[in-house]
Amino acid sequence: MRIILVLLILVFASDAFGMMPSVAHNVGSIGCPSDATLVFEDSFESPWEPGVDTGNWTTVNSNTEIESTIVKYGAQSQKSNASGEYSLKSGLTTTSEFWFDAWIYPDDLSAYFYMMNVGDSSNYVRVRIATDGSVLIYNDSTSVADTGVNISADQWYHIFAHVILTTDGSETAEVAVNQQVSFDSWDVSISNATFTVTTPDRFLLGLTYVGGGGTPVVYTDKGRIFSGGNMPCAWK
User: Fold this and answer.
1) Is 170 a member of any domain?
2) What is the pLDDT of residues 26-59, one digit of tens each?
3) Which domain holds residue 144?
4) Distance from C-alpha of 191 to C-alpha of 63, rounded to nearest angstrom
5) pLDDT tens digits, residue range 161-211?
6) Exposure class string for 100-117: b at 16+ Cβ within 10 A, else e
7) 145 Cβ contact partners less than 8 Å away, ≥ 6 residues apart
8) How far is CA 212 from CA 35, 139, 151, 154, in A?
9) Predicted pLDDT at 31
10) Which of the chain's ends, N or C, has fewer CB atoms near its CB within 10 Å?
11) What is the torsional sign of CA 46, 232, 70, 83?
12) Rounded distance, CA 86 to CA 115, Å?
């Protein structure tokens, strides 16, 4: 009886003074209360089929194709080989701070092209790939920042971007490029960018424009856009 009483006293004292071992929590299982909110995500899976079913997208260019061999996630990716071959999601609700990412796979770099666009009906924040493989962020047709990263053909790359819109010419633009699921570090981060986007309610993924004379084939997979908050948990 005395032994049981002593044990009970020890347990009570340990709990009261924080001596009980803590329980480990998986952040992914309990979420990140302050992280950015997922607004849209899609990996071009069935029933998405150009010219037949737009799936989760609002519109899909009918010349865009299904790719079933060069795929990063699931059974399908999007294949584009000319200007205007992309999928568009409109009617999004975002704040002045947004995050977006996608996987891209260029089969050649014979032309420059715009791949990822977030904007309104007339102005966009755009990710551009140059003929030397450099990855840049643009305001419409004006360069804002160069990541300093050069990608190669025939490989998957994960591109992350973060933008904070203001009205005083001190807008934030950050871009990272790697070949892994998680974000590691920004390759470029500036706070003096100027963007003309006012209401970012559209997300375009695919070849929105190709220039320079070549005809690259580019594959895209798993595009996402988040709004507000801190860095998305999905990136960590």
Assistant:
1) yes
2) 223 345 666 899 999 999 999 999 999 999 999 9
3) 34-235
4) 38
5) 999 999 777 899 999 999 999 999 999 999 999 999 989 999 999 999 999
6) bbbbbbbeebbbbbbbbb
7) 136, 137, 173, 175, 188, 190, 193
8) 40, 19, 18, 20
9) 52
10) N
11) positive
12) 8
Task: At 175, list the tokens.
Answer: 């871009």
Query: Rounded to whole angstroms, how far apart are CA atoms 217 and 93?
Result: 31
Residue 5 lies in a domain: no
The structure tokens listed for 106 are 């260029």
pLDDT tops 80 at residue 103: yes
Beta bridge partners of 85: 207
Q: Which DSSP letter does residue 35 get?
A: B
Q: In the chain, how many domains are there? A: 1
Q: Is residue 161 part of a domain?
A: yes
Instruction: Answer for the pair 106, 153: CB distance below 8 angstroms, yes or no.
Output: yes
Question: Which residues, in sequence order, are CB contacts of 131 under 8 Å at separation 6+?
Answer: 109, 110, 111, 112, 212, 214
For residue 12, what are its two tokens? 């009570």
Per residue in 71-89, pLDDT tens?
Answer: 999 999 999 999 999 999 9
Both tokens assigned to 158: 């994960």
Residue 4 belongs to some domain of the structure = no
pTM of the predicted model, to two decimals? 0.85
